[in-house]
Amino acid sequence: MDTQILTVTTSPPTCNDLGSPPKNSSVSLMHDTSTNMNSSEATLGRHLARRLVQIGVNDVFSVPGDFNLTLLDHLLAEPGLELVGCCNELNAGYAADGYARSRGVGACVVTFTVGGLSVINAIAGAYSENLPIICIVGGPNSNDYGTNRVLHHTIGLPDFSQELRCFQTVTCFQAVVNNLEDAHELIDTAISTALKESKPVYISVGCNLAAIPHPTFSREPVPFSLSPKLSNKMGLEAAVEATAEFLNKAVKPVLIGGPKMRVAKAFDAFVELADACGYPISVMPSAKGMVPEHHPHFIGTYWGAVSTSFCAEIVESADAYLFAGPIFNDYSSVGYSLLLKKEKAIILQPDRVVIANGPTFGCVLMKDFLQALAKRIKHNNTAYENYYRIYVPEGLPLKSAPEEPLRVNVLFQHIQNMLSGDTAVIAETGDSWFNCQKLKLPKGCGYEFQMQYGSIGWSVGATLGYAQADKNKRVIACIGDGSFQVTAQDVSTMLRNGQNPIIFLINNGGYTIEVEIHDGPYNVIKNWNYTALVEAIHNGDGKCWTAKVRCEEDLVEAIETATGDKKDCLCFIEVICHKDDTSKELLEWGSRVSAANSRPPNPQ
Protein backbone atom coordinates (compact mmCIF):
# COMPACT_ATOMS: atom_id res chain seq x y z
CA MET A 1 0.00 0.00 0.00
CA ASP A 2 1.42 3.34 -1.12
CA THR A 3 0.83 6.04 1.50
CA GLN A 4 1.76 9.71 1.26
CA ILE A 5 2.35 11.72 4.43
CA LEU A 6 2.70 15.47 4.57
CA THR A 7 3.54 16.94 7.98
CA VAL A 8 3.58 20.62 8.82
CA THR A 9 4.93 21.73 12.19
CA THR A 10 5.42 25.23 13.51
CA SER A 11 5.69 26.99 16.84
CA PRO A 12 4.42 30.51 16.18
CA PRO A 13 4.28 33.23 18.82
CA THR A 14 1.15 34.90 20.12
CA CYS A 15 -0.38 35.09 16.67
CA ASN A 16 -0.56 32.06 14.40
CA ASP A 17 1.78 32.01 11.43
CA LEU A 18 -0.02 32.27 8.11
CA GLY A 19 -0.41 28.91 6.45
CA SER A 20 0.42 27.10 9.68
CA PRO A 21 -1.72 25.16 12.14
CA PRO A 22 -2.74 26.66 15.47
CA LYS A 23 -0.15 27.21 18.17
CA ASN A 24 1.64 24.18 19.63
CA SER A 25 0.05 21.86 17.12
CA SER A 26 1.15 19.61 14.31
CA VAL A 27 -0.91 18.86 11.25
CA SER A 28 -0.26 15.46 9.72
CA LEU A 29 -2.07 14.87 6.48
CA MET A 30 -2.08 11.15 5.73
CA HIS A 31 -3.83 9.75 2.68
CA ASP A 32 -3.72 6.31 1.14
CA THR A 33 -3.05 7.07 -2.53
CA SER A 34 -3.98 3.56 -3.64
CA THR A 35 -7.60 3.94 -2.52
CA ASN A 36 -10.11 3.98 -5.33
CA MET A 37 -13.28 6.03 -4.91
CA ASN A 38 -16.77 4.78 -5.62
CA SER A 39 -18.69 6.79 -8.17
CA SER A 40 -20.54 8.90 -5.59
CA GLU A 41 -17.22 10.05 -4.16
CA ALA A 42 -15.28 10.42 -7.42
CA THR A 43 -16.95 13.69 -8.32
CA LEU A 44 -15.65 17.18 -8.90
CA GLY A 45 -17.47 18.44 -5.80
CA ARG A 46 -15.99 15.78 -3.53
CA HIS A 47 -12.49 16.34 -4.93
CA LEU A 48 -12.74 20.05 -4.12
CA ALA A 49 -14.04 19.18 -0.65
CA ARG A 50 -11.18 16.75 0.00
CA ARG A 51 -8.64 19.34 -1.08
CA LEU A 52 -10.08 21.88 1.37
CA VAL A 53 -9.89 19.43 4.26
CA GLN A 54 -6.32 18.52 3.31
CA ILE A 55 -5.08 22.10 3.57
CA GLY A 56 -6.70 22.66 6.97
CA VAL A 57 -10.12 24.05 6.09
CA ASN A 58 -12.79 22.33 8.18
CA ASP A 59 -15.43 25.05 7.86
CA VAL A 60 -16.64 26.72 4.67
CA PHE A 61 -18.70 29.91 4.93
CA SER A 62 -21.52 29.88 2.43
CA VAL A 63 -24.67 31.47 1.11
CA PRO A 64 -26.82 29.16 -1.08
CA GLY A 65 -27.98 30.14 -4.54
CA ASP A 66 -29.39 28.07 -7.38
CA PHE A 67 -26.02 27.85 -9.17
CA ASN A 68 -24.17 26.37 -6.17
CA LEU A 69 -26.75 24.07 -4.54
CA THR A 70 -25.45 20.80 -5.99
CA LEU A 71 -21.89 21.77 -5.10
CA LEU A 72 -23.00 22.45 -1.52
CA ASP A 73 -24.47 18.93 -1.37
CA HIS A 74 -21.08 17.45 -2.21
CA LEU A 75 -19.21 19.67 0.21
CA LEU A 76 -21.64 18.59 2.95
CA ALA A 77 -20.99 14.94 2.16
CA GLU A 78 -17.28 15.23 2.95
CA PRO A 79 -16.28 14.04 6.45
CA GLY A 80 -14.38 16.72 8.30
CA LEU A 81 -15.98 19.59 6.39
CA GLU A 82 -18.82 21.71 7.76
CA LEU A 83 -20.84 24.35 5.97
CA VAL A 84 -21.41 27.51 7.98
CA GLY A 85 -24.39 29.25 6.44
CA CYS A 86 -24.08 33.05 6.62
CA CYS A 87 -26.71 35.78 6.32
CA ASN A 88 -25.02 37.44 3.33
CA GLU A 89 -22.04 36.96 1.06
CA LEU A 90 -20.09 39.93 2.40
CA ASN A 91 -20.07 38.42 5.89
CA ALA A 92 -19.19 35.00 4.47
CA GLY A 93 -16.09 36.60 2.95
CA TYR A 94 -15.24 38.44 6.16
CA ALA A 95 -15.67 35.16 8.07
CA ALA A 96 -13.26 33.39 5.70
CA ASP A 97 -10.85 36.28 6.34
CA GLY A 98 -11.07 35.83 10.12
CA TYR A 99 -10.76 32.05 9.75
CA ALA A 100 -7.61 32.44 7.64
CA ARG A 101 -6.04 34.69 10.27
CA SER A 102 -6.28 31.84 12.77
CA ARG A 103 -5.93 28.72 10.60
CA GLY A 104 -3.74 30.08 7.82
CA VAL A 105 -6.32 29.55 5.05
CA GLY A 106 -10.08 30.04 4.68
CA ALA A 107 -12.84 29.33 2.16
CA CYS A 108 -16.26 30.63 1.15
CA VAL A 109 -18.89 29.51 -1.38
CA VAL A 110 -21.39 31.83 -3.07
CA THR A 111 -23.50 31.88 -6.21
CA PHE A 112 -22.80 33.43 -9.60
CA THR A 113 -22.47 37.23 -9.99
CA VAL A 114 -25.05 38.37 -7.40
CA GLY A 115 -23.12 36.40 -4.80
CA GLY A 116 -19.69 36.92 -6.32
CA LEU A 117 -19.99 40.68 -6.61
CA SER A 118 -21.31 40.82 -3.05
CA VAL A 119 -18.39 38.86 -1.57
CA ILE A 120 -15.75 40.66 -3.63
CA ASN A 121 -15.29 43.50 -1.14
CA ALA A 122 -14.23 41.00 1.52
CA ILE A 123 -11.93 39.24 -0.95
CA ALA A 124 -10.29 42.57 -1.81
CA GLY A 125 -9.64 43.12 1.89
CA ALA A 126 -8.08 39.67 2.22
CA TYR A 127 -5.90 40.40 -0.80
CA SER A 128 -4.64 43.60 0.85
CA GLU A 129 -3.87 41.68 4.05
CA ASN A 130 -2.12 38.74 2.30
CA LEU A 131 -4.62 36.09 3.39
CA PRO A 132 -5.12 32.93 1.30
CA ILE A 133 -8.86 32.46 0.77
CA ILE A 134 -10.42 29.96 -1.61
CA CYS A 135 -13.41 31.86 -3.02
CA ILE A 136 -15.69 29.36 -4.76
CA VAL A 137 -18.56 30.42 -6.99
CA GLY A 138 -21.29 28.20 -8.39
CA GLY A 139 -21.25 29.14 -12.07
CA PRO A 140 -23.59 28.74 -15.05
CA ASN A 141 -24.36 25.42 -16.70
CA SER A 142 -21.40 24.48 -18.88
CA ASN A 143 -23.68 24.25 -21.93
CA ASP A 144 -24.47 27.96 -21.70
CA TYR A 145 -20.90 29.13 -22.30
CA GLY A 146 -20.41 30.30 -25.86
CA THR A 147 -24.13 30.64 -26.56
CA ASN A 148 -26.03 33.86 -26.99
CA ARG A 149 -28.25 33.20 -23.98
CA VAL A 150 -28.99 35.71 -21.27
CA LEU A 151 -29.02 34.24 -17.75
CA HIS A 152 -30.56 35.40 -14.50
CA HIS A 153 -28.22 36.74 -11.79
CA THR A 154 -26.27 38.58 -14.50
CA ILE A 155 -26.33 42.14 -15.79
CA GLY A 156 -28.44 41.05 -18.76
CA LEU A 157 -25.72 40.38 -21.32
CA PRO A 158 -24.83 37.01 -22.90
CA ASP A 159 -21.21 37.54 -21.86
CA PHE A 160 -20.61 35.65 -18.58
CA SER A 161 -17.16 37.08 -17.90
CA GLN A 162 -18.14 40.18 -15.89
CA GLU A 163 -17.61 38.46 -12.54
CA LEU A 164 -14.32 36.92 -13.64
CA ARG A 165 -12.97 40.27 -14.80
CA CYS A 166 -13.84 41.84 -11.46
CA PHE A 167 -12.02 39.11 -9.53
CA GLN A 168 -8.89 39.32 -11.67
CA THR A 169 -7.70 42.40 -9.79
CA VAL A 170 -8.27 41.05 -6.26
CA THR A 171 -7.15 37.40 -6.60
CA CYS A 172 -3.83 35.88 -7.61
CA PHE A 173 -5.38 33.09 -9.74
CA GLN A 174 -8.74 32.54 -11.40
CA ALA A 175 -10.10 29.15 -12.49
CA VAL A 176 -13.30 28.84 -14.52
CA VAL A 177 -14.23 25.15 -14.44
CA ASN A 178 -16.71 24.51 -17.24
CA ASN A 179 -15.56 21.05 -18.33
CA LEU A 180 -14.37 17.98 -16.46
CA GLU A 181 -11.23 17.24 -18.46
CA ASP A 182 -9.13 19.99 -16.88
CA ALA A 183 -11.10 20.48 -13.66
CA HIS A 184 -8.61 18.55 -11.52
CA GLU A 185 -5.70 20.62 -12.80
CA LEU A 186 -7.48 23.96 -12.46
CA ILE A 187 -8.68 23.31 -8.91
CA ASP A 188 -5.31 22.06 -7.71
CA THR A 189 -3.45 24.92 -9.37
CA ALA A 190 -5.78 27.48 -7.82
CA ILE A 191 -5.52 26.10 -4.27
CA SER A 192 -1.76 25.60 -4.39
CA THR A 193 -1.30 29.12 -5.79
CA ALA A 194 -3.30 30.60 -2.90
CA LEU A 195 -1.02 28.84 -0.44
CA LYS A 196 2.19 29.83 -2.23
CA GLU A 197 1.24 33.45 -2.79
CA SER A 198 -0.76 34.01 0.43
CA LYS A 199 -3.51 35.68 -1.58
CA PRO A 200 -7.13 34.81 -2.41
CA VAL A 201 -8.03 32.78 -5.49
CA TYR A 202 -11.29 32.49 -7.46
CA ILE A 203 -12.79 29.16 -8.56
CA SER A 204 -16.00 29.09 -10.59
CA VAL A 205 -17.61 25.64 -10.92
CA GLY A 206 -20.33 24.99 -13.50
CA CYS A 207 -23.59 24.18 -11.73
CA ASN A 208 -24.04 20.92 -13.71
CA LEU A 209 -20.53 19.56 -13.04
CA ALA A 210 -20.18 19.15 -9.27
CA ALA A 211 -22.05 15.82 -9.10
CA ILE A 212 -20.48 14.12 -12.14
CA PRO A 213 -17.86 11.39 -11.59
CA HIS A 214 -14.68 11.54 -13.65
CA PRO A 215 -11.60 9.29 -13.82
CA THR A 216 -9.33 12.12 -12.64
CA PHE A 217 -11.18 12.11 -9.30
CA SER A 218 -11.23 8.31 -8.90
CA ARG A 219 -8.37 8.17 -6.37
CA GLU A 220 -7.75 9.96 -3.10
CA PRO A 221 -5.74 13.08 -4.06
CA VAL A 222 -2.10 13.07 -3.07
CA PRO A 223 -1.51 15.84 -0.50
CA PHE A 224 0.13 19.00 -1.76
CA SER A 225 3.88 19.07 -1.28
CA LEU A 226 4.71 22.66 -2.10
CA SER A 227 8.33 23.32 -2.92
CA PRO A 228 9.74 25.73 -0.34
CA LYS A 229 11.03 29.07 -1.53
CA LEU A 230 14.79 29.33 -1.22
CA SER A 231 17.06 32.31 -0.78
CA ASN A 232 19.87 32.98 -3.20
CA LYS A 233 22.81 31.91 -1.02
CA MET A 234 25.23 34.47 -2.39
CA GLY A 235 22.64 37.21 -2.15
CA LEU A 236 21.77 36.19 1.39
CA GLU A 237 25.38 36.26 2.50
CA ALA A 238 26.01 39.62 0.85
CA ALA A 239 22.83 41.13 2.36
CA VAL A 240 23.69 39.88 5.85
CA GLU A 241 27.25 41.13 5.61
CA ALA A 242 26.21 44.58 4.42
CA THR A 243 23.46 44.85 7.04
CA ALA A 244 25.67 43.66 9.88
CA GLU A 245 28.30 46.23 8.93
CA PHE A 246 25.64 48.97 8.80
CA LEU A 247 24.05 48.08 12.14
CA ASN A 248 27.21 47.18 14.03
CA LYS A 249 28.67 50.65 13.52
CA ALA A 250 25.44 52.34 14.69
CA VAL A 251 25.31 53.78 18.21
CA LYS A 252 21.63 53.32 19.02
CA PRO A 253 19.86 51.08 16.48
CA VAL A 254 16.27 49.85 16.82
CA LEU A 255 14.17 47.00 15.40
CA ILE A 256 10.56 47.41 14.15
CA GLY A 257 8.22 44.64 12.99
CA GLY A 258 5.75 45.18 10.17
CA PRO A 259 2.65 43.35 8.86
CA LYS A 260 4.42 41.52 6.04
CA MET A 261 6.13 39.31 8.62
CA ARG A 262 2.90 37.30 8.42
CA VAL A 263 3.27 36.33 4.77
CA ALA A 264 7.01 35.80 5.28
CA LYS A 265 6.34 33.43 8.21
CA ALA A 266 9.08 35.27 10.05
CA PHE A 267 7.65 35.77 13.55
CA ASP A 268 10.07 33.39 15.28
CA ALA A 269 13.04 34.64 13.25
CA PHE A 270 12.25 38.22 14.26
CA VAL A 271 12.27 37.25 17.94
CA GLU A 272 15.53 35.34 17.40
CA LEU A 273 17.16 38.50 16.07
CA ALA A 274 15.63 40.58 18.88
CA ASP A 275 17.11 38.24 21.46
CA ALA A 276 20.54 38.42 19.84
CA CYS A 277 20.83 42.14 19.16
CA GLY A 278 19.57 43.72 22.38
CA TYR A 279 17.86 46.54 20.48
CA PRO A 280 14.52 47.92 21.63
CA ILE A 281 11.80 46.27 19.54
CA SER A 282 8.58 47.84 18.38
CA VAL A 283 5.80 47.04 15.94
CA MET A 284 3.95 49.04 13.36
CA PRO A 285 0.23 49.27 14.22
CA SER A 286 -0.81 46.68 11.62
CA ALA A 287 1.71 44.21 13.06
CA LYS A 288 0.33 44.24 16.60
CA GLY A 289 0.02 40.67 17.83
CA MET A 290 2.84 39.41 15.61
CA VAL A 291 5.60 40.14 18.14
CA PRO A 292 5.39 38.92 21.76
CA GLU A 293 4.69 41.94 23.92
CA HIS A 294 6.11 40.22 26.98
CA HIS A 295 9.58 40.36 25.37
CA PRO A 296 11.87 42.26 27.77
CA HIS A 297 12.87 44.81 25.11
CA PHE A 298 9.40 45.47 23.69
CA ILE A 299 8.63 49.21 23.80
CA GLY A 300 5.23 49.35 22.10
CA THR A 301 3.69 50.48 18.83
CA TYR A 302 5.54 52.81 16.48
CA TRP A 303 2.87 54.94 14.81
CA GLY A 304 4.50 58.33 14.44
CA ALA A 305 2.71 61.03 16.40
CA VAL A 306 0.26 58.52 17.94
CA SER A 307 2.83 55.94 19.03
CA THR A 308 3.00 54.30 22.42
CA SER A 309 4.48 56.81 24.86
CA PHE A 310 8.28 57.13 24.49
CA CYS A 311 8.36 54.70 21.54
CA ALA A 312 8.46 57.25 18.69
CA GLU A 313 11.12 59.26 20.50
CA ILE A 314 13.41 56.24 20.63
CA VAL A 315 12.71 55.09 17.06
CA GLU A 316 12.97 58.48 15.40
CA SER A 317 16.12 59.48 17.31
CA ALA A 318 17.90 56.24 16.39
CA ASP A 319 20.82 56.37 13.99
CA ALA A 320 19.74 53.10 12.37
CA TYR A 321 16.45 51.24 12.17
CA LEU A 322 15.57 47.90 10.66
CA PHE A 323 11.95 47.56 9.50
CA ALA A 324 10.89 43.95 8.91
CA GLY A 325 7.97 43.82 6.47
CA PRO A 326 6.64 47.38 6.75
CA ILE A 327 3.74 48.98 4.88
CA PHE A 328 4.02 52.76 4.80
CA ASN A 329 0.65 54.10 3.73
CA ASP A 330 -1.16 57.33 4.64
CA TYR A 331 -2.79 55.73 7.69
CA SER A 332 0.27 53.95 9.10
CA SER A 333 2.39 57.06 8.47
CA VAL A 334 -0.20 59.36 10.13
CA GLY A 335 -0.72 61.41 6.99
CA TYR A 336 2.89 60.97 5.79
CA SER A 337 4.28 62.62 8.92
CA LEU A 338 6.80 60.01 10.15
CA LEU A 339 10.17 61.50 11.08
CA LEU A 340 12.27 58.82 9.43
CA LYS A 341 15.26 59.17 7.12
CA LYS A 342 15.95 56.78 4.30
CA GLU A 343 19.70 56.87 4.86
CA LYS A 344 19.18 55.39 8.34
CA ALA A 345 16.74 52.65 7.32
CA ILE A 346 17.09 49.02 6.39
CA ILE A 347 13.83 47.90 4.77
CA LEU A 348 13.27 44.16 4.77
CA GLN A 349 10.48 42.81 2.57
CA PRO A 350 9.45 39.13 2.32
CA ASP A 351 12.02 38.51 -0.44
CA ARG A 352 14.16 41.66 -0.64
CA VAL A 353 16.55 43.73 1.48
CA VAL A 354 17.12 47.46 0.87
CA ILE A 355 19.94 49.09 2.83
CA ALA A 356 19.58 52.85 3.29
CA ASN A 357 20.63 54.68 0.11
CA GLY A 358 22.91 51.82 -0.75
CA PRO A 359 22.57 48.33 -2.21
CA THR A 360 19.44 46.22 -2.70
CA PHE A 361 19.45 42.44 -2.54
CA GLY A 362 16.72 40.37 -4.19
CA CYS A 363 15.79 36.70 -3.80
CA VAL A 364 16.57 36.91 -0.08
CA LEU A 365 13.81 35.54 2.14
CA MET A 366 13.01 37.48 5.30
CA LYS A 367 13.04 34.43 7.55
CA ASP A 368 16.46 33.26 6.31
CA PHE A 369 17.86 36.78 6.51
CA LEU A 370 16.75 37.42 10.09
CA GLN A 371 18.09 34.07 11.28
CA ALA A 372 21.45 34.61 9.58
CA LEU A 373 21.72 38.20 10.79
CA ALA A 374 21.10 37.08 14.37
CA LYS A 375 24.39 35.15 14.19
CA ARG A 376 26.37 38.14 12.90
CA ILE A 377 24.96 41.07 14.83
CA LYS A 378 26.73 42.62 17.79
CA HIS A 379 24.75 43.03 20.98
CA ASN A 380 23.90 46.68 21.54
CA ASN A 381 21.34 47.78 24.11
CA THR A 382 22.18 51.50 24.08
CA ALA A 383 18.82 52.55 22.65
CA TYR A 384 16.96 50.37 25.12
CA GLU A 385 18.90 51.89 28.00
CA ASN A 386 17.91 55.33 26.69
CA TYR A 387 14.28 54.19 26.63
CA TYR A 388 14.56 52.88 30.18
CA ARG A 389 15.93 56.22 31.37
CA ILE A 390 13.08 58.30 29.95
CA TYR A 391 10.24 55.84 30.49
CA VAL A 392 7.48 56.87 32.88
CA PRO A 393 4.72 54.31 33.54
CA GLU A 394 1.33 55.19 32.14
CA GLY A 395 -1.19 56.55 34.57
CA LEU A 396 -4.64 55.18 35.20
CA PRO A 397 -7.87 56.87 34.11
CA LEU A 398 -9.43 59.19 36.64
CA LYS A 399 -11.55 57.31 39.10
CA SER A 400 -15.20 57.43 38.15
CA ALA A 401 -17.68 59.06 40.48
CA PRO A 402 -20.66 56.89 41.48
CA GLU A 403 -23.04 56.47 38.53
CA GLU A 404 -20.85 58.75 36.39
CA PRO A 405 -21.41 58.21 32.63
CA LEU A 406 -18.90 55.64 31.43
CA ARG A 407 -15.75 56.93 29.77
CA VAL A 408 -14.06 54.98 26.97
CA ASN A 409 -10.69 54.92 28.75
CA VAL A 410 -12.35 53.29 31.75
CA LEU A 411 -13.96 50.71 29.46
CA PHE A 412 -10.62 49.68 27.98
CA GLN A 413 -8.99 49.56 31.41
CA HIS A 414 -11.46 46.81 32.25
CA ILE A 415 -11.03 45.07 28.86
CA GLN A 416 -7.27 45.00 29.55
CA ASN A 417 -7.93 43.02 32.72
CA MET A 418 -9.95 40.44 30.74
CA LEU A 419 -7.07 39.45 28.44
CA SER A 420 -5.20 36.18 28.77
CA GLY A 421 -3.63 33.52 26.60
CA ASP A 422 -7.10 32.07 26.12
CA THR A 423 -8.52 35.20 24.49
CA ALA A 424 -8.23 36.96 21.14
CA VAL A 425 -9.04 40.59 20.38
CA ILE A 426 -10.81 41.68 17.19
CA ALA A 427 -10.63 45.47 16.71
CA GLU A 428 -13.03 47.14 14.30
CA THR A 429 -12.09 50.05 12.05
CA GLY A 430 -12.59 53.27 14.00
CA ASP A 431 -11.59 54.47 17.45
CA SER A 432 -11.26 50.82 18.50
CA TRP A 433 -8.10 50.79 16.38
CA PHE A 434 -6.50 53.26 18.74
CA ASN A 435 -7.93 52.01 22.02
CA CYS A 436 -7.14 48.37 21.27
CA GLN A 437 -3.67 49.33 20.09
CA LYS A 438 -2.94 50.42 23.67
CA LEU A 439 -3.90 47.04 25.14
CA LYS A 440 -0.95 45.05 26.44
CA LEU A 441 -1.28 41.53 25.09
CA PRO A 442 -0.33 38.71 27.45
CA LYS A 443 1.50 35.68 26.09
CA GLY A 444 -0.70 33.69 23.74
CA CYS A 445 -3.38 36.37 23.32
CA GLY A 446 -4.48 36.75 19.70
CA TYR A 447 -4.99 40.12 18.04
CA GLU A 448 -6.40 41.01 14.63
CA PHE A 449 -7.56 44.10 12.82
CA GLN A 450 -7.80 45.19 9.20
CA MET A 451 -5.68 48.30 8.82
CA GLN A 452 -4.66 48.31 5.18
CA TYR A 453 -8.18 47.94 3.77
CA GLY A 454 -10.11 49.38 6.72
CA SER A 455 -13.59 48.22 5.70
CA ILE A 456 -16.15 49.12 8.35
CA GLY A 457 -18.21 46.12 9.43
CA TRP A 458 -15.32 43.68 8.86
CA SER A 459 -15.13 42.69 12.51
CA VAL A 460 -18.54 40.99 12.75
CA GLY A 461 -17.72 38.44 10.07
CA ALA A 462 -14.10 38.20 11.21
CA THR A 463 -15.25 37.42 14.76
CA LEU A 464 -17.47 34.65 13.38
CA GLY A 465 -14.61 33.18 11.34
CA TYR A 466 -11.92 33.46 14.01
CA ALA A 467 -14.16 31.93 16.68
CA GLN A 468 -15.06 29.07 14.34
CA ALA A 469 -11.39 28.43 13.56
CA ASP A 470 -10.13 28.42 17.15
CA LYS A 471 -12.68 27.16 19.62
CA ASN A 472 -10.09 27.24 22.42
CA LYS A 473 -9.95 31.04 22.47
CA ARG A 474 -12.72 33.36 23.53
CA VAL A 475 -12.95 36.26 21.11
CA ILE A 476 -13.37 39.77 22.53
CA ALA A 477 -14.64 42.04 19.76
CA CYS A 478 -14.68 45.83 20.05
CA ILE A 479 -17.10 47.23 17.48
CA GLY A 480 -18.46 50.73 16.92
CA ASP A 481 -22.16 51.28 16.36
CA GLY A 482 -21.71 52.56 12.80
CA SER A 483 -19.68 49.52 11.77
CA PHE A 484 -22.08 47.13 13.48
CA GLN A 485 -25.00 48.46 11.47
CA VAL A 486 -23.26 47.33 8.26
CA THR A 487 -22.94 43.63 9.14
CA ALA A 488 -24.98 42.96 12.29
CA GLN A 489 -26.96 40.02 10.83
CA ASP A 490 -24.26 37.41 11.35
CA VAL A 491 -24.52 37.55 15.12
CA SER A 492 -27.25 35.10 14.13
CA THR A 493 -24.66 32.73 12.64
CA MET A 494 -22.52 32.95 15.78
CA LEU A 495 -25.51 31.86 17.86
CA ARG A 496 -26.43 29.12 15.41
CA ASN A 497 -22.92 27.67 15.72
CA GLY A 498 -22.75 27.85 19.51
CA GLN A 499 -20.02 30.49 19.66
CA ASN A 500 -19.34 32.46 22.84
CA PRO A 501 -17.60 35.72 21.91
CA ILE A 502 -17.90 38.83 24.04
CA ILE A 503 -18.96 41.72 21.82
CA PHE A 504 -18.53 45.24 23.17
CA LEU A 505 -20.80 47.45 21.07
CA ILE A 506 -19.54 51.00 21.57
CA ASN A 507 -22.55 53.23 21.04
CA ASN A 508 -21.42 56.82 20.56
CA GLY A 509 -23.93 57.87 17.95
CA GLY A 510 -22.06 57.70 14.68
CA TYR A 511 -18.88 57.40 12.65
CA THR A 512 -16.47 58.86 15.19
CA ILE A 513 -13.31 58.22 13.16
CA GLU A 514 -14.85 60.12 10.23
CA VAL A 515 -15.85 62.98 12.55
CA GLU A 516 -12.20 63.50 13.48
CA ILE A 517 -11.14 63.54 9.82
CA HIS A 518 -13.98 65.68 8.46
CA ASP A 519 -17.21 66.29 10.32
CA GLY A 520 -20.65 66.65 8.82
CA PRO A 521 -24.27 65.57 9.37
CA TYR A 522 -23.62 62.39 7.38
CA ASN A 523 -21.52 61.07 10.28
CA VAL A 524 -24.56 60.86 12.57
CA ILE A 525 -26.49 57.58 12.37
CA LYS A 526 -29.92 56.43 13.52
CA ASN A 527 -29.64 55.00 16.99
CA TRP A 528 -30.77 51.39 17.40
CA ASN A 529 -31.79 49.49 20.48
CA TYR A 530 -28.82 47.17 19.98
CA THR A 531 -29.47 44.81 22.87
CA ALA A 532 -33.10 44.41 21.77
CA LEU A 533 -31.92 43.71 18.21
CA VAL A 534 -29.62 40.94 19.39
CA GLU A 535 -32.38 39.51 21.58
CA ALA A 536 -34.65 39.48 18.51
CA ILE A 537 -31.98 37.68 16.52
CA HIS A 538 -31.55 35.23 19.40
CA ASN A 539 -35.29 34.54 19.48
CA GLY A 540 -34.89 31.92 22.20
CA ASP A 541 -32.65 29.70 20.06
CA GLY A 542 -29.06 29.36 21.28
CA LYS A 543 -27.10 30.74 24.21
CA CYS A 544 -27.19 34.51 24.36
CA TRP A 545 -26.93 37.17 27.04
CA THR A 546 -27.11 40.93 26.60
CA ALA A 547 -26.51 43.96 28.77
CA LYS A 548 -26.67 47.72 28.33
CA VAL A 549 -24.15 49.64 30.43
CA ARG A 550 -24.00 53.36 31.14
CA CYS A 551 -21.58 53.59 34.07
CA GLU A 552 -18.58 51.74 35.49
CA GLU A 553 -20.70 49.89 38.04
CA ASP A 554 -22.82 48.46 35.22
CA LEU A 555 -19.71 47.51 33.27
CA VAL A 556 -18.09 45.68 36.19
CA GLU A 557 -21.25 43.68 36.77
CA ALA A 558 -21.61 42.88 33.06
CA ILE A 559 -18.03 41.65 32.72
CA GLU A 560 -18.35 39.51 35.85
CA THR A 561 -21.45 37.89 34.38
CA ALA A 562 -19.95 37.45 30.89
CA THR A 563 -16.84 35.78 32.26
CA GLY A 564 -18.67 33.85 34.98
CA ASP A 565 -22.19 32.46 34.80
CA LYS A 566 -22.55 33.28 31.08
CA LYS A 567 -19.09 32.24 29.94
CA ASP A 568 -20.59 29.69 27.53
CA CYS A 569 -22.93 32.26 25.96
CA LEU A 570 -22.54 34.85 23.28
CA CYS A 571 -22.37 37.98 25.43
CA PHE A 572 -23.35 41.26 23.84
CA ILE A 573 -22.57 44.32 25.94
CA GLU A 574 -23.80 47.65 24.60
CA VAL A 575 -21.69 50.46 26.05
CA ILE A 576 -23.27 53.92 25.96
CA CYS A 577 -20.60 56.61 25.49
CA HIS A 578 -20.58 60.33 24.80
CA LYS A 579 -20.27 61.13 21.10
CA ASP A 580 -17.10 63.18 21.70
CA ASP A 581 -15.41 60.62 23.96
CA THR A 582 -12.48 59.54 21.80
CA SER A 583 -8.89 58.53 22.35
CA LYS A 584 -6.31 61.31 22.20
CA GLU A 585 -4.57 59.30 19.49
CA LEU A 586 -7.61 59.51 17.21
CA LEU A 587 -7.77 63.28 17.69
CA GLU A 588 -4.14 63.65 16.62
CA TRP A 589 -4.30 61.07 13.84
CA GLY A 590 -7.54 62.45 12.44
CA SER A 591 -6.19 65.98 12.10
CA ARG A 592 -3.05 64.75 10.33
CA VAL A 593 -4.93 62.46 7.95
CA SER A 594 -7.35 65.31 7.25
CA ALA A 595 -4.41 67.54 6.33
CA ALA A 596 -3.05 64.86 3.99
CA ASN A 597 -6.46 64.38 2.35
CA SER A 598 -6.97 68.10 1.81
CA ARG A 599 -3.65 68.90 0.11
CA PRO A 600 -4.31 71.20 -2.85
CA PRO A 601 -3.51 70.02 -6.39
CA ASN A 602 0.08 70.45 -7.52
CA PRO A 603 0.59 73.44 -9.83
CA GLN A 604 0.06 72.50 -13.47
From TrEMBL:
Record GO cellular component, one term: cytosol
Catalytic activity: a 2-oxocarboxylate + H(+) = an aldehyde + CO2
Domain Thiamine pyrophosphate enzyme TPP-binding: 450-575
Sequence positions that bind Mg(2+): D481, N508, G510
Coiled coil regions, renumbered to chain: none
GO molecular function: magnesium ion binding; pyruvate decarboxylase activity; thiamine pyrophosphate binding
Pfam families with a match to the protein in the record: TPP_enzyme_C, TPP_enzyme_M, TPP_enzyme_N
Essential cofactor(s): thiamine diphosphate; a metal cation; Mg(2+)
Co-factor binding details: Binds 1 Mg(2+) per subunit.
Oligomeric and partner information: Homotetramer.
Protein name: pyruvate decarboxylase
Taxonomic lineage: Eukaryota, Viridiplantae, Streptophyta, Embryophyta, Tracheophyta
